[in-house]
Amino acid sequence: xxxxLNSIALAISMCGLAGTAYAQEAGSxxxxxxxxxxxxxxxxxxxxxxxxxxxxFTSPGTGAEIHNTFTGEFLVxxxxxxxxxxxxxxxxxxxxxxxxxxxxTP
Length: 106
Known about the structure:
- The protein starts with a helix and ends in a 5-residue tail after the last strand.
- It has one domain (24-100).
- It is an alpha+beta fold.
- The chain has one helix at 2-17; strands at 29-38, 48-52, 55-59, 63-66, 69-79, 85-91, 98-101.
- The protein is 15% helix and 43% strand.
- The protein is elongated and about 70 Å long.
- The strands form three sheets. A three-stranded antiparallel sheet has the order 1-5-6, with no helix packed on it. The chain has a two-stranded antiparallel ribbon with strand order 2-3.
- A hairpin with a 5-residue loop joins strand 5 (69-79) and strand 6.
């Protein structure tokens, strides 16, 4: 019981640390910045397969991979009314590191 009361007291005291919320008016534009994590979890490939007018071939020992990266972004929010907003994300093109191995031969 005492542990539960301590948890409730902690939760109530944390409410005092929370900032106040500011309501937006119609016509307001809010711009926020941040970072986006691009996760290329399924980026690795196995053997290279190629199709052309001369046929299809597989090159054993080949592969490729793209690594994960961060990029900057801005969120632009326009409040059409006090309760309805239109939001757009604008970001910087990320720099991706592409690694490959092997030699492609028919």
